[in-house]
Structures are given as C-alpha cells and as structure tokens.
Amino acid sequence: MSAARPLTTLRNVAVIAALPLLLASCGYGSDAKTDEKKVAAEGKKLSADTVRVGYFPNLTHATALVGDQEGILQKELGGTQLKVSTFNAGPSEIEALNADSIDIGFIGPSPSINGYTKSKGKNLRIIAGSASGGVKLVVNPAKIKTLDDIKGKRIATPQLGNTQDVAFLNWISEKGWKVDAQSGKGDVSVLRTDNKVTPDAYKSGSIDGAWVPEPTASKLVSEGAKVLLDESTLWPDKKFVITNIIVSQKFLTEHPDVVEAVLRGSTKTNEWINANPDKAKASANTKLKELSGKPLGAEVIDAAWPSIQFTDDPLAATLQAQADHAVKAGLLKQPDLNGIYDLRTLNKILKDAGKPEISDAGLGAK
Predict the structure, then answer these.
(1) What is the pLDDT of residues 19-53, one digit of tens each?
(2) Neighbours of 287 (CB within 10 A)
C-alpha cells in the first residue's frame, strides 16, 4: 500500500452535473453565511479597512473557529476589521474568492488545486497550512469486521472527487478491487452522500460504512459504528493536508501587511490550540454553536478532536500526492501546480519566532 494519499473536497453527486470534467469541490454543503457581528477593532489600522475571511463550520477548520472565537485574529489585525463568512462547500468559497467577496479562505486541497489550475495560476496562492488528518473509515461492526470485508459493501464518501472520495478510490485500487470512479459501481459500492445526511443513512441501514472527515466519523461512532481505519496511518509521519489557508493574489499584492497579520493570528492560534487542547476544543464548540445553533455532543467532539493535528505546515508534498491520486482515478487531468504556494510571509513569521522554515516541496512562487 502506498504511503501517500488522496485529494480534498468536491461536489456531492447530486450536484455533479454542475461540475466540469474535474473535481471542483471541498464539500460539506452549500451557501455562504456572513457574520455581521461587529467586533470593535482597536489599534492601528493596516492598509485595508477590512479583511474578509472565509471558513467552514467544521472541526478541521478549528484554527479559524478558535482564532475567531478567541479574538486572536482580530487582535493581530488591530484597527483593520475582520469580517467572517462561513461556507459549507469548497466551490462556493472559491467562487467567493473569484468574485472578490472574500480575500482569504480556510479550505481543502481539492478546491485549492481546482481554483489554481482553472485560472491558470492567476487567482490564488496557498500561504499556510491549518490542519492535518481527521479522516476515518467507520463501519457497521455487525457487517464488517476486517478490511477485506469491505468488498461487496456500500460505503459512503462525501462527494464525487472530494478528498475522501479519492482517498477511498485509491485505497480500493491498492486492494486490487475495481470500481468505476464516476458511477461508484464495482467490487465496492461507493455512495456519494452529503455529510449532513450520512448519519441518517447509516441508521437506516442504507450504507454499511463511510470514509469521512470529522466530526461525521465520530457522529457515526456515536450511532454504533466502529473505526476500522484512520487515514493518517496511510501517510508518511501520519500527516496529510486537510485544510489550507489561501489568499486572493490581488489581495496579497495590494495588502501584504494584512495577510501577514492574519498569518500571525493563525500561527498564534495553532500554538494556543496545541498548548491548550481542552480549552481550544471548548472554544471551537462554542463557535460551532453560534454558527449552527447547536454544539457537538461531548461523545462526538471528544472522540473527533484527537485525530486532527493543527499545523502551520501545508504539507506540500501530500498536496501533490493527492492530486496524483485524483489523476490516477481518472477524476482530474494532470495539473501544473508550480507556483501554487507562496510561503514567504509564513516563513518570515516563523523565522522571527525562532522556528524552522517550512518547505513548499518545489511548488512555490518564484
């Protein structure tokens, strides 16, 4: 079994007709919501009055959740106002970036790759990492007891071509089994199912398991499912990118001081999360309650949290591997990712803090 692993978020099968040849998604749902709450911005204003940041109300975006909730991002911005929009799907966030509705986004690898390649490298840069891991294969223990038992079963992934879908298709291929990537039919039935409805599909018996991100995996476990495989075990050092930070190239050029402030905030947030995991978990859940009206239950968040690693490193080599697996599955044309990263500001911040610089795996802006 290879050590590398698959690509992030694309569109639910229900929306597949709207997708071009390739993956376009990051996928947990649909429309954006903007937080109109006014936070009193104090201190010196930077070169922009406002910075518009997008993220998902999801545990793998906890850097944004906690940085927003604890005011860490706003503190670094001083008199520049932080305006937050939340999204439930990668394509929506990329569309917002392209439409100049947001400036910076927390987002998965697949939409980052799609947004970059479809614009021929002109609309975005990945400027930092945010999170690794947090993806599991969970199954009905009455029907599936070993990995070999997956053959012939019905397994859900979030969307055709999303990170988990490609990861599962690649894993199936490595087992020597055959599945048609588009239809999901073959030795395993791959059922593309929105994460919001996957727990109900499991309870109804219409799926036998799922290869999904957190907190969906732990929600299924709370319904009696069992974790059969943690995807991190398939990667070198058990790390693979699940969330990046991207920026509009226009905004990066015009407001580098604001981008630097947001990155200082994200690095300080990750440092605080890793030093205070229990407080950080509670903070993320408080923000989730504010955004969705309902916090995660303790049995879900306590099980999900330890599988996610919060890191400034975008794990560039794993982005390339995820793209390669999507190409292998026939879901993506070979992309040219040269220039997708610009880690210069991040590495300046890390150097100033006495920390080692981070590699862009040869895919950096020249």
Answers:
(1) 333 333 333 333 455 554 444 456 789 999 999 99
(2) 25
